[in-house]
Amino acid sequence: MNDLQAKRRVLSGMRPTGRLHLGNYMGALYNWVRLQDQYDCFFFIADWHALTTDYANPGDVWQKSHDVALDFLAAGLDPERCVMFRQSDVLQHAELNLLFGNLTPLGWLERVPTYKDQQEQLREKDLATYGFLGYPLLQSADILLYKPAFVPVGQDQVAHVELTREVARRFNQLYSSAVTPEVAAAKSDKELMKAEVSENLIELAILPEPKVLLTPSPKLPGLDGRKMSKSYGNTIALTESEADVRKKLKTMVTDPARVRRTDPGDPDVCPVGDLHKVFSSPETMAKVYEGCRSAGIGCIECKGWAADSIVREIAPIAARRAEYEAQPEKVEQILTEGAARARSVAEATMREVRVAMGLARASH
Ligand code: TRP
Ligand code: SF4
């Protein structure tokens, strides 16, 4: 690909939960790292989003964001090949969120499935707030500011990208200008989309509708066999030391049918088997299936192999994290430079949006 064939843009964000675990990595970051060469990538730490649920006890959001940035870099996001930044460093996210608030019907937000689900699941928090209802709209602003072609997310975020598409459509219907074909041709670059051709006029969509890029996100089991999640306290950190990976795996639950060493088991119903499927080679997998089903191997041996596979994947990540940990100013500098690049794209969109909504005059 040469410079003339501009790469299509991808944007995604992650809440700052502090140090990432293997489930966060396989669900998002692993995929992002692989998108860097193919697309013009923007990845950000959604620190404002943390407050939509944790406003009462935010903790040190700054530090948690810094830790996520360390894991981004450790996992292989490369500031030379992608733009990475903190959301709160780019105030245009807040401005677009505010403007969107005027044109978004309440019902659209009330109908987002996570709205009621999360309120029920997080009963200890009072989530009957404006910010919590509105966070998918903030996410729409996060996305549309950059006019990405694709938003790589897991299944749980698809509804939010759908809302984003609806918001873009409504915005374009309300504010897009109709221009003559000549003007359209002159303006025609990858951002401008022909929405509709009517008589001699062409509608130019200001905010193109992005598509979901559904990334494979294997459900990683945690040590207790439930989904790996910080709130269950069953995680293996992305940068866990080798000794701790081995120690943690020893405590992991296995196929309950294997009570004694001589009982055969089934890797398909064993959480350790699920880890093998994600991290182990086909050769190791074959040994696991054969040995487990014939009771030829013990669970301790099998867990040792799983630990080997995990350590092989994460050892280089831990090493890179240690390098960046020693230079926190460099990490912050990467985020500052990323924010400057993000801001220039976001501000260009905002200039169009302000003009379209009648808040500013087009400057020539
Ligand atoms: N809501 C997303 C999550 O909880 C994080 C997020 C915020 C995001 N803004 C985004 C993801 C924009 C993609 C695009 O995981
Ligand atoms: Fe699970 Fe491995 Fe034990 Fe089989 S041998 S039950 S796959 S830990």
Automatic annotation (TrEMBL):
InterPro entries on file: aa-tRNA-synth_I_CS, aa-tRNA-synth_Ic, Rossmann-like_a/b/a_fold, Trp-tRNA-ligase, Trp-tRNA-ligase_bac-type, Trp-tRNA_synthetase
Residues reported to bind ATP: 15-17, 23-24, 154-156, 220, 227-231
Motif ('HIGH' region): 16-24
Keyword Membrane: no
EC id: 6.1.1.2
Origin superkingdom: Bacteria
Short sequence motif 'KMSKS' region: positions: 227-231
Binding, L-tryptophan: 142
GO MF terms, alphabetically ordered: ATP binding; tryptophan-tRNA ligase activity
Matches recorded under NCBIfam families: trpS (TIGR00233)
Assembly and interaction partners: Homodimer.
Protein's job: Catalyzes the attachment of tryptophan to tRNA(Trp).
This protein's name: Tryptophan--tRNA ligase
Source organism of this protein record: Terriglobus roseus
UniProt lineage: Bacteria, Pseudomonadati, Acidobacteriota, Terriglobia, Terriglobales
Gene label: trpS
